[in-house]
Amino acid sequence: MSSQDLPGRSDPCPSDAAGSLVEILQWRAAHQPERLAYIFNSDGRSEEARLTYGRLDRAASRIAADLQKVATPGDRALLFFPSGQDFLGAFLGCLYAGIASIPLFPPRANRKGARLEAVIEDSGARLALSQQARLNTIREQLGVGHGRRLELVATDGIADMSSRKWSGELPAPGSLAYLQYTSGSTSDPKGVMVTHANLIYNCSYMSEAFGLSSDSMAVTWLPHFHDMGLIDGVLNPLFNGCPAVVMSNIQFAQRPFIWLEAISRYRATHSGSPNFGFDLCIRKIKPEQRDELDLSCWDVAYSGAEPVRSETLDQFAEYFAPCGLRRQTLFPGYGLAEATLMVTGGTKGELPIVIHMDGPALDQGRLIPAVAGEAKARPVVGCGHVRRETKVAIVDPETLRRCSADRLGEIWVSGPTVAEGYWQRPDATEEAFRAYTAAGEGPFMRTGDLGFLQDGELFIAGRLKDLIIVRGGNFYPQDIEWVAESVHPALRPARAAAFSIDVDNEERLVIVQEVEREYRRSSPEELQAMAALMRQAVAEEFEIETFIVLLVQPSGVPTTSSGKVQRRECRAMFLEGGLEVLWESRIARGSDASAPVGPMLNRRDLVGLRPGEARRKLIAFLRRQVAAVTGASENEVLPDTPLGSLGIDSLKAGELTSELEQGFDIDLPSTLVWNFPTIAQIAEHIALQIQSQPAHARVAAKIT
User: Fold this and answer.
1) Cis omega before residue 443 (within 30°)?
2) pLDDT at residue 703 is higher than 60
């Protein structure tokens, strides 16, 4: 499909002058009702739906009309949707009705998250919106009807009745549009208050940086509950009047090829990802798949939401150059939810800027240029510059004075892009959003990130706050520590340190945990079991892999005189080998799920076998397959071992599920590993599915 196939390419809509996205959508529905707005193609294989501005306005209107019967403007509503058109209609319906929505990941069956509970309590939400098929799970997980009052609304069950029409006023620019709950502490979540004016300014701001117009074409797989996936993925295309292809983040994790395939197929000009998404494409897309792609259409490939790595930029540009990808397409940027989304970005069509600094000096806050290739040289990627009314200052977090040109400092931001503050948190808002320099300049929003400016370019060099970023997700170490230390009485409470280290250009999680004195002489088998329980608990709660678990002697984790854990000191001691280690559990590196792991197995090998024999063959095969995905030895992968204890996170779970679907030619749930957490349970499920599901039209390829 080319841009010539899209109706109505001229766009006189005065988006910059609008006060809200409600006003923009109503204009587009009135003047461009048949113009294509969104294509929903979750798995890269087939389109589920196409949505015009007229249909989108009608969906938002009828949802708003239904909500007006049970809620009043100013109420809050939880949104539990996967990526797709149901989410979009619900989000815009809330905007129409004046209800502040809270985008969240749909809760899974048999799992109750502390963070979700805290978000519900903090927000005071009265409504929960989702799809009809998910309501029972949500009712059970949230305890609706058992002491909790929450109105559940299935938006896909609202009849499309032309007589049911939204009646309301356009929202004021300064009114609350939605609450973006950051990946903050589980016990203390903070909802960023994003106004309609924030949204309009940031969409316009990004459009200028990216060079977007109604002639652009966007593709996104980023989840809608993430600020980048929400604003740039689905709202910015509405602002600009350009079509967007919306895909599933779960399907992307299973088959990253579908992202670049969609860019090639739809001739997309605009799409991006956190750094890990680019890295995943490098590792998982085979040369023969790459040869099918034409990426010459791609104008802006933005990278943000986690540290942008120069090695990833180099490798991605080199690997996909044969497809027509230009290096100047790569577009590093910097932003955060507290600033609505984007703070700085480069210039379309210009090469990314990479400079080198003396690494040890940088760790001490000093900026000393270095030459690439020198032992101490550390590459730092430029994340662009500010535009319009947005301002950035580099400030010493202790003295509150602006830093000199040779010093690292905290990044402070001001301008219309900065959100209003944290919901119902006046003290936290005052501290984070109302900062002034020693000279009285302000107010600024304190980001907690460390960086420096050089010729107007912003470079990110670290974090002031203890925050762990893994594959685009933000995690507070105290949450990880609390979950990990709670699994066994041998683990000392409040004596754990979680931090991240750089391994092969990727941030990996490390947990150092003290053992109680009476357990110091535990056997290696007992210590190994403790580490496995810790890894499993973290995987199940946060869906991330713990690369290393270290069990150390009592008082082995450094603390302050008041007993507060010193995570940075612990990290430094770990890197220097200065910890007194009782046991180390490390996930092996260098494994790849596509590498040969022994005899092959497919659907034809199992059809006709007795159930017991089929399960035995499946279990033997799955042990090899899981060992390949996790890097564990096959001896560690026992039939009843919880896969979370082996380091299976959401990304590896997606890889494994995709391989099994392809090899056995069956449909499997994206939550396979979480619903069936052991090899024995997965084998049982696959055996049943092979018996009950007919083979698909595609040829079942053997997996290795």
Assistant:
1) yes
2) no
